[in-house]
Amino acid sequence: MKFRYHFQKVVDLKSNEKTQAEWMLSTAIGKLQTEEEHLLQLMNDKNNLISVIQSATESRASVSSLQEMQRYVYHLDECISKKNSDVKHAQVNVQQNQTFLNGKMVDEKVWLEARDKAKIKFQQEMLLREQNDLDEMATVRFAAKAGRAI
């Protein structure tokens, strides 16, 4: 007789929920990395523009072009500020997904342990039945031999 766990569908559901939570965490981490890369690009753009402004100042560029570049620096500062907010939001999302995944992992572990305990109990019962069958066969043989001897 083969072991069949009555709640196997629940175990499968918990495993699927854990897998889905892993995907959600992976997506959140990917979004965080994208936001961090965009932030880094904005900061690099700002640093490059500041270098250009310094070079233009040394080469006696027009005031209007310097003002235009300075306005763009302010714009980049605003973008960097917004992107910092986006990065923090993405970090919170990653943390929430990690917590959610941890809960799903605990749920799955509880059900897997319950299945393992049920399987061990089933195996012990099967061994006991087998032993009882062997004992009964031995008793029948002994009785048959004893009956012939009389």
Biggest pleated-sheet summary = none
Instruction: Estimate the strand proportion.
Output: under 5%
The stretches of 5 or more residues where confidence is low (pLDDT under 50) are none
- Secondary structure class reads mainly alpha
In DSSP terms, counting alpha (H) and pi (I) runs of 4 or more, how many helices?
2
Describe, in plain words, how this protein is organized in 3D.
The structure is a single chain. This protein is mainly α and 150 residues long. It has a domain at 7-108. Helix content is 92%, strand content 0%. The protein has helices at 8-58, 63-149. The chain is rod-shaped and about 130 Å long. Pfam families: FliJ. It comes from Paenibacillus xylanilyticus.
Q: What's the layout of helices and strands?
A:
Elements: H1 8-58, H2 63-149
Question: What is the gist of this entry?
Answer:
By secondary structure, this protein is mainly α. The protein has helices spanning 8-58, 63-149. The model has no long low-confidence stretch (mean pLDDT 94).
Keyphrases for this structure?
rod-shaped; mainly alpha; 2 helices
